[in-house]
């Protein structure tokens, strides 16, 4: 990928409170969302308006953003629940739990739906996610918010929960991915006749995707100015330092959440997904995510952030990376929190912070934009803004390949390229590949596959199966950038690649110490994974 000029985002106001993000004391509950608005409603899309505003529970169907702190979707659920309480009994304050007037159901519950088979995910992804949810359940309890872990297809489980709780509103978090949209559409179809409201909240992007742009953006240079214009409005501190208000205590109702046997569930998932085992170099969960960001050895400590702008493209220097992508993917860390904390260091580490915010905000939100407006984001489909690349690939489709490899050979790292093999083995052993090397890795798959379509399929299969941040807009967009020129420009026409940008082994040797990287990967064993 070419060198890019780092852009300076506006500096957000310095948030108050503990810099580590740990809550030393619960904040006072807010009396009502009418007097204390929590969420900018430009983040909210009404899927179903519903006709119920009575004192029935609000259900936050959590999916992409699996955290308690810094979660706009959870805050929207709190806001709606408090508004309903205030409307039903304006004299009551949510700060004081009502006695005889206590509702039979809690005003807000959180539900997460566990799909048994999810795009080839193994124990690596499922266990990382479940361990984070185990922590989340305990944290929600501190705010009087029950947690339901559902199992099955969402179009079945979510409406069943709505019926059991007599809920009047579903709040969910936003994702641009095809399967997530299909789930929401199917759930909405079943809820519409019930008069239940349904809202989707963009809790993942600093600037909400629908606000940043209503069309597919050609490149970062076309999206960047739109985001920069809106950052002063959206890159702001969360209310209550990101913590939700404490919900009023209420009765459990006739359908309290079943007790979750976390050890048994984790054992079940580990066995079922044993072909892609867990990795142990990274600790899952919201607490670990915050420590990885700005704890005593976190990314934002001076020894690490100071290296970012000069070492981020050097796979032989792992400390030059943030290693936050698994936390961002599973929503255990809010990108907005990462941006706020990084911005505080800009006066000391200007180049590094600017470069990091470019990747964290502009590039990541560009990936959401691509997947939002290109439903076939994982396929080579004519009639798109990157038709120049597809036409070029088609022209060279029958070019002789010097060698081709099967998917099995690629997955096991059995090619004649030691750098590529090391990248694949880092992915298999650690669940993460250096971002710069991912581009080389995907481009070589194009060179070694019979067709560009096969290359896209293999690259996505390997990334989704082995990477902790697989099944993500950034992953799909990265593959399509490397293979199909998405968000790139045409280059000199070459065999096989056509006008797609080429990355070579010799080019990598000129940028970083290839033998050192290969030796690093070879040194990894099960204790280091």
TrEMBL record:
It comes from the Eukaryota. It holds the Pfam family DNA_photolyase. Residues 1-40 are annotated as: Disordered. Residues 56-206 form the Photolyase/cryptochrome alpha/beta domain. InterPro entries: Crypto/Photolyase_FAD-like_sf (IPR036134), Crypto/Photolyase_N_sf (IPR036155), DNA_photolyase_N (IPR006050), Photolyase_Class-2 (IPR052219), Rossmann-like_a/b/a_fold (IPR014729). This is CPD photolyase. It comes from Dunaliella salina. The lineage of its organism: Eukaryota, Viridiplantae, Chlorophyta, core chlorophytes, Chlorophyceae.
């Amino acid at each position: 990928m070419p060198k890019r000029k780092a852009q300076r985002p506006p500096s957000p106001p310095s948030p108050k409170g503990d810099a580590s993000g740990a809550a030393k004391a619960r904040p006072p509950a807010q009396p009502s969302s009418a007097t204390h608005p929590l969420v900018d409603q430009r983040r909210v899309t009404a899927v179903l308006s519903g006709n119920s505003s009575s004192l029935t529970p609000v259900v936050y169907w959590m999916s992409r953003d699996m955290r308690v702190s810094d979660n706009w979707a959870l805050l929207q659920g709190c806001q709606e629940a408090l508004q309903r309480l205030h409307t039903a009994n304006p004299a009551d304050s949510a700060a004081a739990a009502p006695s005889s007037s206590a509702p039979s159901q809690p005003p807000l519950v959180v539900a997460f739906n566990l799909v048994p088979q999810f795009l080839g995910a193994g124990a690596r992804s499922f266990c990382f996610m479940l361990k984070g949810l185990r922590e989340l359940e305990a944290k929600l309890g501190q705010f009087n918010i029950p947690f339901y872990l559902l199992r099955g297809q969402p179009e079945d489980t979510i409406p069943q929960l709505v019926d059991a709780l007599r809920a009047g509103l579903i709040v969910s978090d936003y994702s641009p991915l095809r399967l997530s949209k299909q789930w929401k559409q199917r759930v909405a179809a079943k809820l519409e006749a019930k008069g239940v409201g349904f809202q989707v909240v963009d809790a993942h992007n600093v600037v909400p995707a629908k606000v940043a742009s209503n069309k597919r953006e050609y490149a970062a240079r076309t999206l960047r100015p739109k985001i920069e214009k809106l950052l002063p409005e959206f890159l702001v501190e969360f209310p209550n330092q990101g913590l939700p208000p404490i919900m009023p205590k209420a009765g459990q109702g006739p359908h309290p959440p079943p007790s979750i046997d976390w050890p048994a569930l984790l054992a079940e998932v580990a066995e079922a997904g044993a072909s892609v085992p867990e990795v142990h170099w990274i600790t899952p969960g919201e607490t670990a995510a915050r420590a990885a960001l700005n704890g005593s050895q976190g990314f934002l400590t001076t020894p690490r952030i100071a290296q970012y702008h000069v070492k981020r493209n050097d796979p032989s220097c792992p400390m030059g990376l943030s290693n936050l992508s698994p936390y961002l993917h599973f929503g255990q860390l809010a990108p907005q929190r990462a941006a706020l904390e990084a911005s505080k260091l800009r006066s000391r580490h200007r180049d590094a912070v600017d470069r990091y915010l470019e990747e964290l905000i502009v590039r990541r939100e560009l990936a959401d934009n691509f997947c939002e407006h290109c439903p076939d984001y994982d396929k080579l489909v004519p009639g798109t803004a990157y038709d120049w690349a597809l036409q070029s690939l088609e022209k060279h489709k029958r070019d002789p390949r010097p060698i081709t490899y099967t998917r099995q050979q690629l997955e096991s790292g059995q090619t004649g390229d030691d750098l590529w093999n090391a990248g694949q083995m880092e992915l298999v052993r650690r669940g993460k590949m250096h971002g710069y090397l991912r581009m080389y890795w995907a481009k070589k798959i194009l060179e070694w596959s019979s067709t560009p379509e096969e290359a896209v399929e293999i690259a996505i299969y390997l990334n989704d199966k082995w990477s902790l941040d697989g099944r993500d807009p950034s992953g799909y967009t990265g593959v399509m950038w490397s293979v199909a020129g998405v968000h790139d420009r045409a280059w000199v026409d070459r065999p096989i690649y056509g006008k797609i940008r080429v990355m070579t082994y010799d080019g990598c040797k000129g940028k970083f110490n290839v033998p050192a990287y290969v030796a690093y990967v070879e040194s990894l064993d099960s204790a280091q994974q």
